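Run log, item B.
One chain of 465 residues. Sequence copied directly from the ordering sheet:
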Amino acid sequence: MGKTLFDKIWDRHVVKTIPGGPSVFYIDKHFIHEVTSPQAFKGLQQRGLQVSRPQQVVATADHNVPTIDQHLPIKEELSRRQVEQLKKNCADFGIELYGLGHPFQGIVHVIGPELGITRPGMTIVCGDSHTSTHGAFGTIAFGIGTSEVEMVLATQCLMQAKPKLMRINVEGSLNKGVFSKDIILYIISQISASGATGYAVEYAGSAIRNLSMEARMTICNMSIEMGARCGMIAPDDTTFAYIKGRKFAPQGEAWQKAEADWRTLYSDADAVFDRELHIRAEDIEPMITYGTNPGMGIGVTGHIPELGEIEEREKPSFEKSLHYMGLNPGEYMKGKKVDYVFIGSCTNSRIEDLRMVASFVKGKKKADHVEVWVVPGSRQVEKQAVDEGINKIFEDAGFFLRQPGCSACLGMNEDKIPAGKYCISTSNRNFEGRQGPGARTMLASPLTAAAAAITGEITDVRELI
């Protein structure tokens, strides 16, 4: 029997398997940030331990950082303390830090790929659930808790049980105005926010193969939003072209050797998955969420389900969600007024996202009542946006290009959506209070978000293209 892509990488990294138990699993690259690492370092200090392999750890500040005036001291005390503690811990333990002001600083899941640190066949962890982003390169990448962060720092290994395997095939051609964010929101709406619990998911099919690397990252990023342990896509020529020439990518003969190995990383034709799903790309339209988990999504022309369409056991949470959002069963989302638009996060803050939005809004003006925040995922993305004149296009449209960070994806920094306000967001989560206490979040693609910024309401972007 053939092997899946996951099997091939897993087998390379199992140090030891405990009979009837988990495996000792080797980690190639460990990303850390300021939120989930302080207690891990404190644990090392209390036990008198050093970081096992500091050269395999990469640190950056992203969650707590402000996205304006980054040259000034951070105003929020907790955020300032966490960022300062990360700086101290990295200095004490000999870890490379891309902190505020560093040309490589940015959201952890943006800088790994753009610097060529993320490469096929690797195992990657971070104390952040959206580590699955890196799976777009054909890696096993997943989020871990603080105690596991400490374990990897101390041993470069984790105790892991092998998950079940799922393949989701998306075949066909995408319709006008439909992008990778719409693909993953559609999948989650079909199988629910818990539909992939316990699985490692491989995305395959012609629609996936035709995506750019940045679009693939968006899909893998949100694998966790349907409960998956990780998401991954087999590497191909698109992958290799993206990596080649980047700062930390292999060079010369090392590149040739690496690429030859990467070309063996795919699921064999006779590989067997525990579950397999098939999606028609033509069935997907621009998506929008209406509730308080990413599975509560519909096509932009559709309506919120009627109460009779909801299973009895799910009705209490469904009604609670709509009450929080100020919406009603059967209501159409198209035409709903929005107050804020947030374009950013580790899901959609790369240069491709910013270029897409800029090409759409060029020569247009935002609606007067809408506040628009565009937050690049890294200093490098910010620099590219300025070099290409994207910042000027945004300025003319009334958009505000801020500095890199997680920003309004989560209410952990100064960029919060006010209570009761509606925000169309390109981020990955729409939980209650995710973008600030009482904030109402609707997830969408960058282009759907841009259309709402221009019209002031939820809009079918296909009517404006």
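Observations after the first pass:
- The domain at 304-463 is CATH 3.30.499.10 (Aconitase; domain 3).
- The longest strand covers residues 164-171.
Flagged for discussion on Thursday.
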